[in-house]
Structures are given as C-alpha cells and as structure tokens.
Design goal:
The complex is a heterodimer.
Chain A (H helix, E strand, L loop, with lengths): L4 H20 L23 E5 L6 H14 L3 E5 L5 H9 L6 E5 H9 L7 H7 L8 H6 L1 E2 L2 E2 L2 E6 L1 E6 H7 L11 H11 L1 E3 L2 E7 L7 H7 L17 H16 L3 H10 L14 E7 L1 H9 L5 E7 L5 E4 L1 E6 L7 H11 L2 H17 L12 H8 L9 H12 L2 E2 L7 H18 L3 H24 L1
Parallel strand pairs in A: 1-2, 1-3, 9-10, 12-14
Antiparallel strand pairs in A: 3-13, 4-5, 6-13, 7-10, 7-11, 8-9, 11-12
Chain B lengths: L14 H5 L7 H46 L2 E2 L7 E2 L3 H7 L2 H33 L5 H9 L6 H11 L6 H8 L11 H12 L4 H12 L3 H9 L4 H29 L3 H7 L15 H11 L3 H29 L7
Antiparallel strand pairs in B: 1-2
The chains are: A alpha/beta, B mainly alpha.
Organism (chain A): Agromyces aurantiacus
Protein name (chain A): ABC transporter substrate-binding protein
Family (chain A): Belongs to the bacterial solute-binding protein 1 family.
Amino acid sequence: MRIGHRALGAAALTAAAGLMLGGCAVGTGGQSNDTNAKYDPDAKLSGTLTIMGFGGEDEVATARMDLAETELGDVDVKLIKGDLDIQQFLSSVASGEPPSLLYADRDQIGSLAARGAIIPLEDCIDGEGIETGDFVESALDQVTLDGTVYGIPEFNSVQLTMADQQLLDGAGVTIDDVNGSDRTAMTDAAAKLVQRDGDNVKVIGVDSKLPEFLALWVAAAGGSLISDDGRTAQLDSEEAVSSLEWAAGIYEEQGGFPAIKATRDAADFFGAGNQFATNTLGAMPMEQWYLNVLNEVSPDAPMAFDTVRTTDGDPIAYATGSAWAIPSGSDNPEAACRWARAMTSVDAWRAAADARLSARNDAGLPFTGILTGNTVADEEIKGMTTADEEPWASGVAAMYEANDHTFSLPANPADAEFEDAMFEAVNSVLTSGADPAEALAKAQETAQKALDDGWAELEG
Amino acid sequence: MSTATRPATGSEPEPAAQAGPPSGAAPAAVGRERGRRRAHRRNLFSALLFLSPWIVGFLVFTAWPMIYSAYLSLTDYDVINNPEFIGIQNYVDLASDEKLLLALGNTAIFTLLQVPLYVVVSLALALLLDRAGRASGFYRTVFFLPKMTPPVAVGVLFLLLFNGQNGLVNGVLGFFGIDGPSWTTDPAWVKPGLVFMSLWTVGASVIILLAALRNVPKELYESAQLDGAGFWRQSFSVTLPMISPALFFIIVVNTIAGLQTFDEAYTAFFGAGNTTYSNDAALFYVIYLFQQAFEYLHMGYASAMAWLLFVVIMIITAIQLVVSRRLVYYEGDR
C-alpha cells in the first residue's frame, strides 16, 4: 500500500502533537516526597522562602514573623499576600515552581496530600523538634491523612452560643434553652423569640446556622458525618438525619429558611448595627472570633454566652483553622520547616499575645484571648486576658471551655466533594422542602463515591 | 531548460512554468512582473509583521489551549499528577451526570429568559435615546457606565439590592403595593433575579442599537408616512428590518454570553466566604465546570465539559444563522 506524502505528514504532525501534549501535561506531585532535606534546628539556613496564602498583616502575625525571621537568619522571606488561591497554587505546582511553603485551611490538607501536592512532615517534625504533643489533638487529626502528618496546625476556631439576653428575658427563656442541650426546648425558644410581620421576619428567634454547622449538631447528638479514618461517609446516619430534621425544623417554626436567611443577610454583621446590638437575633452558635468583633463594635450589646452543648449537656465545638504545609518540589524545605516550627512555637504565640494585649490596651478594649491550636500557648495566653467585666468575661470563659472539648472531621482525599454533597443535601431541605432522610441518603451516595475514588487514587 | 524549449510530456505544466512569463515576453514586462511580486511579498511580510502580535497571541492563548484541552478531555488529570489517558470515558460520564443536566437546564432557562428581555430593554432604551436629541450623548454615557462595573461587584450588589427582607428592589415594589419575593433565597426566584440584575449592563447593546437606528434612511419613514403607515407599522416594516443585523448580532452575542454566564452568580452563591445558598438554582454550566476543574481537581472531566459547551454553542449559533437568513435584512444583499 502506498502512503502519500500528505498522509505521512499528517501522521508525523499528529505524533508530534501527541508528544508535545504528553510532554506538556507533566505533573510534579506524588513524585518528590523525598526532598533529601536535612532538618536540623542548629543548621545555618540561606536562600529564599516564598510563602503562599499568608497575609501577615495584623500584630498577631507580624510579632510571630519577626521571631521566625530571626530564627531563619540569612533566609530572604517573601510573602505572596492574600488568602490561598488554590488555582494559583496548583498552577505553580504543575509548572514545577511551587512556593517554598503553603498556608492553607486545615480542611484542604487531605486533598492536597492525597494528590501529592504537599509532602509528609514526619522528618521535618523530628528534625526541627516540633512538639506535636503540644497541639490541640483535633487540630492535628485534621492534618493527618492515613496516619501521616502533612500540616503544622495553627489557630483554632470554635463555636460558642451567643444570645441576646434582653430578648431572652422578654420571651421568658434562658441561655440553657438555646445552647443545644435540650433540642425541644431550643425549638420552643425559637418560636417564643421570633417576631414576624406578615411573611417577613423582624427578629430571628434562634438561628441553628445550617448548613455550616450540621457537623456540630451531629457530633452533639453523638454521631459524626464521616468515620474516624476518613474512608466512610456517614451522612445518612441516624444522628445526621435526626439532627438535620431538628435544625431545619427550627427555621420552619419561624417562617421558613428563605425568610430567616433574608433577615440574616440584611444584618450589619461586622458593624455597630449588628443583629445583637439591634435586638434582631435571639441566639445562634458562632465562632469565637465574633466575640471580639462584638466587644469592639457594640460593647453595650446585651450579650449572653455559653458553650454549645451536646444533648447530654456537655460542652462541644467543631474545630477548624489553618496549617503550614510544604509543597512537593519546595525549593527550600528546611527553611519552610523552621518557619512552621517558629510560627507555631510557644515563644511566638507569647510575642503575639503581648502585641495584641498592647494594642487592645491602647484602644481601651479588653483582651479576649487567642486560640492558637497549641495547648501550652493557649494556657499561657488565657492568663493574659483582661476581659473581667460581664458579659465578656463569660464569653472568654466559654471560649476556653469550648476549646477543651473540640472535635474535627478527619482529613480525607475528597474534602471539597464531601462538603459540597453535604451542603447540597441541607440546602435542598432548607429551600425546597426535601425530605431530610432522602436528601442525606442521596448525599451519602455522592460523598461515598468521591471518597472511594479519592482513596483508590491515593493507594493505587 | 527554458519553458519555451521544454518538450511536451502530456502532463500539466508545473506551477513554476505556469506562473512564468509567456514565451517571447519583453524583458521590461518580465521586470515589472518581478517587481510586482517583490512588492507583493513585501506587503505580505509587512502585514504578517503587524499581525504577528495577534497571531502569536491567538496561537498561544487560544489555539494551543483549545488543542490541549481537547487532549486533556481524554485523560484523567488532577493538575498535579501526570494525566492518564482514558479515551472517551469523560464523555461517557457526562451522559450520566445528573448535576450536569441540572446545570445545563439552569443555563438554558437563564439564557431563554435573559436574551429576549435584554434585547427588548436595549431596544426600548435605544428608541428613547434616538428621540432624546442633543441629550442623547449624556444618557448614552450614563447607560454605558454600569458596564464598567466589575461583575464580581455586581454579584455582591445583587445580594444587597435583591434581598427579600430589606433590598431596594422589594422596597420599590412595596411602594407600588407589590409584595416582592425572596429573590436571593427562594430557588424559584433566583434565576429571574439574576436575569433582572443582568440588565445592569444593557448599555453596550443600547449603543449598538442606537447606531443602527441612526443609520435607517429617513426617506423610508417619509415614504411609509405617505403610504399612511402609523408608528407600529413603521416600526415593524421599516425600523426592525433595517436594524435586524444589529439585533441579530446582539442576540447571538448575548446567547453565547448567557450560556457562559459565571461571574455574578458565582460571586453571589458559590464564591469563597459567601453565605447565601441557592439550592443549586444558580448552578450554571460554567460554574459546575469551574467546580470540577478547580475545586474537585477533575481537570480532564472539566475539559470534556468545555468541549460539550463548545458544541452546544456552535449548534445554537448555527441554528440562529440559518434562521437569520429569513429574518435579517442586509442592505447590500440582492
């Protein structure tokens, strides 16, 4: 058979294109876990340390950075400012020029680790002498995939029950009725506290903060949305279904989620006209940093605080936060590891707390503490707080109590898909009246498939 | 061997021989011909030189990514690790993806609602401006200014203006005794709300239509008036046919934009830090594509989605082109 010049040319072009495409599509992850790095706290370091995802703009950051830069000696530190842009990071990894160090949400660590975008930190931890025993256990769990630590956690966010004492008094309910310990009482309180004008909700009685806090309510009922090893979704568990029915039912008692949500969105959340200052919200679970916001913008708001409580009445909080991770192909893993160690050390947190205390004193405001993810540092900083007057003293006490009773969702290789499946189920219940059991069963299927695929990819 | 003395072979002359001067041509003519060719080559070179930034940009930023995307659509690729060739599996998976169907449906509904409304409002404003006389320049600028607003800001603004509780839109509706819906939280009203919000950027189309209206020959209206045609008759028999190319352009461009809508809806309902949920009523095709690519890191699957969208847009545009042959009047046509 005679092959013409054009056919040969086309074949050659196709082959060349195939080779070029194949050549272009070269990933870097999963191949460079062995960095040959030698981690030694006494080693003199040099070179450049590029950090992605860390802003470093307030005194808590800059005080620690000063200390870390001193420990790094001649290393030139460059911040790629702003929150982590996962597209930017992945592009840099794919192009073979990742940053030296990454600052990410802890719930992103599992996916990044599973894809080989970040390296295990066992050598770094051993070499630099990072005291992992000092870290909050749930925070460390969140950055541990399949038994291997991939991130050095820092900061902890926990939830408190925040309530408007004036509205509670007016409705004849107490903070114990809205802290989750008695779910029937909490639903009744919502009905008593809510104020409506036709279809509009003027005052939200109780906001159960779905879909964000479904995991919190499920844990408060003794369950978990995912197994401890991060392999099995438990979205259709009895605790999950009953918690969603109850938490969504609270909205139904008050006129439905769309009306509540519209009122929630209308609040001047970070300003002096926030929902507690304007008496338009009875109670909600909320992260502890909001205590600081309220104290600053509306110090006279009639606040009442407690921890969120399990159905047995015990404190509970769903811990989230950030972590330092070293990307595959990092050009300076030794400096990255030392920076992570220095930034999360007790000395660094002490310096940060001093700086924050000083700034709050200058502003004539009480220091309400910092949750660091490091138990030793937390204990020390707790003793430095100056929020002695009520209701803020109760808020700070509740914050530290919550911090001692945290849980987290374990790292897994499909965290984004898992979370989206859960959110989708909750939203369909809230906005379309879907049956909670059916919605969660569907989410279970989607989430489990994503987990199975993720783990298969990781292990295959 | 000169072409003049070359023996006949029974085959066609070679191109070089065809292009050469006729045998016996005067040397001056040959020189002119060579000069003309040199000039042609110089012109071609100059043209290519001036076009080269665009050509390079097109090859690097459009053609190459498209080819690469076609390749990735046949792979399992998570950006970080090497792509694994899986043939047409991504395309097979598209067929059974319920969420993809939902996203396609949302996008189709949005486009079907948005394009006609966009065209009608643009035309109405252009007709008003056409009668605004010297003030039209001012209003033209005013209408165009919102187009300069970043779509992300429009997404945030949407949540404020269309808040069912205290948004400005429901405030205005309330003034007329109308109880406005929960635009941002009721799934049934999310897409209509986004459609209304998209009218924010109607200015560009208004300007195009205004230019088309200004180009309609006045004699046609005078003739129509002499024939006793009223306003509506003139509009349907003179104005619309004469501006139909501009209308067609706006319809095609807005249809494509509608099918690719992303920014405002993503910012309002899916972006980082947002706290508003649409129960996927605002899950448009490109948003789902973005999620697959950059949140779930299924870059191969997202590439297949991109090609599916490309085919859908091509089919719809082709249908519009076929229909336009009957409905669009081009003055130069015979």
